[in-house]
What does this fold into?
Amino acid sequence: MKISIIKATDSTTVNIIKRMGISIELRQSLHRIISWSPPWPHWLKLNFDGTKKRNGQRIGFIVRDWSGFPYLAGYKSIAIPQTHNSLELRAVWWGLKGLSKFYQGPLSIEGDSQVTLLTISKGSKENWRLATILKEIKQSCKIFRWLCSRTTVRQGNGIAD
It folds into this structure.
């Protein structure tokens, strides 16, 4: 697993992630935010996305606080063919997995896939291949003190693709 940390608050966070055996890439980058609504004060928000194009499949996530400060971000290509909803679900799972290693406070999850967020909240009996990921997501969600999710439609998804 590779996680990109755009900006770390201190070297302690970076050292904890390295000791867990997760390779990280520290970088400072300028990113243009198309639209983003912050979580409530003292909350973090995990935004996720998955995309399927002719040139491949990718998933990604970013976690920011109420001021927009980025805590954690990750992206990667997926080689095994997946459905779009499966890619979105994997992006949430990957983000929660990384974040739960060092944060247990209130969290908001937001993405443009209503199916993904409904599957997480209500479960799914239709896709047995996703059952393991769903179980791990539900276990990760128990770590956070408060959790809410919201679906949003973004004009900027073309940039992520």
The domain at 2-31+38-160 is CATH 3.30.420.10 (Nucleotidyltransferase; domain 5). The chain has one domain: 2-31+38-160. The chain is about 30% helix and 30% strand. Helices lie at 11-19, 84-99, 114-122, 131-141, 157-160.
